[in-house]
From TrEMBL:
Name under which the protein is recorded: Biotin-protein ligase N-terminal domain-containing protein
Source superkingdom: Bacteria
Coiled-coil parts of chain: none
SUPFAM superfamilies from the UniProt entry: Class I glutamine amidotransferase-like
InterPro entries, alphabetized: Biotin-prot_ligase_N (IPR019197), Class_I_gatase-like (IPR029062)
Domain named Biotin-protein ligase N-terminal: residues: 77-123
Length: 240
């Protein structure tokens, strides 16, 4: 908990006088699937950290802008539809999100949110770019349909929910790779951007058992909420 004290000072988390916990914002709107937004919010709320989790978006009480981001320590971009569609919605927020992270904020990107952390197109928060993993020659999944794929998270083999998530072509000396795909390429990582940090994942660490049931997939040993908490902890508290 002591590690959160410096975060409490950022952005005036005590300013409203009601809830002293650091604010974590989760995007919920047309550039994300509601299921993913809700699951990311649940992951952050259940992380064991004293975070105040709120949604931000065009139909939420909080709108996504520089003023809203200034009071937060975390901004999370969940999974959604296509990158082209999402970028058409999120491009107007790119400068605000970059400024938030550059000034010491923390960005979490899940699947589509990982794509949006890239540059072509995206918020340009990575020391490199993203690519469509299913298009790589050795990809375990080769269609955009829901799937369960093999990853190694901190060296531990596991199965995770996957739906056309990104791969990451990044400078290896500027990132901390948390997970790799079956072909050895990065599947989840944390890096610095300005005074802040960025954590991204191609697979869905926030996926619950219900996701697998809805997709008619076997969830045996494939629900790993702890990996999402690892991504959050590493983004908040620093690289090893």
């Amino acid at each position: 908990m002591a590690g959160l004290l410096p975060l409490l000072a950022r952005g005036g988390a005590l300013a409203d006088g009601f809830d002293p916990r650091p604010l974590a914002l989760v995007y919920r709107g047309p550039a994300a699937y509601r299921r993913s937004s809700n699951a990311v919010a649940a992951l952050l709320s259940g992380s064991g950290l004293p975070l105040r989790v709120e949604f931000v978006g065009p139909d939420e009480p909080r709108r996504l802008d520089a003023g809203t981001l200034a009071g937060a320590v975390v901004y999370a971009q969940p999974g959604g539809g296509t990158l082209a569609h999402a970028w058409g919605i999120m491009a107007d927020h790119a400068d605000d999100i970059r400024g938030f992270v550059d000034g010491g904020g923390h960005y979490l990107g899940f699947c589509l949110g990982g794509y949006l952390a890239g540059a072509t197109p995206g918020f340009d928060l990575l020391p490199g770019d993203t690519y469509r993993y299913i298009d790589s020659p050795d990809a375990e999944a080769d269609t955009p349909e829901d799937a369960v794929i093999s990853v190694r998270w901190r060296g531990r083999p596991m199965r995770m929910f996957f739906q056309d998530g990104p791969g990451f072509r990044v400078a290896p000396d500027r990132v901390s790779v948390l997970a790799t795909y079956d072909d050895g390429s990065p599947a989840a990582l944390v890096c610095r951007y300005g005074r802040g940090r960025v954590g991204v994942s191609g697979p869905h660490p926030e996926a619950t058992a219900g996701w697998f049931t809805a997709a008619n997939l076997d969830d045996t040993d494939a629900v790993h909420i702890g990996t999402g908490r690892d991504l959050l902890d590493t983004a908040l508290f620093g690289l090893p």
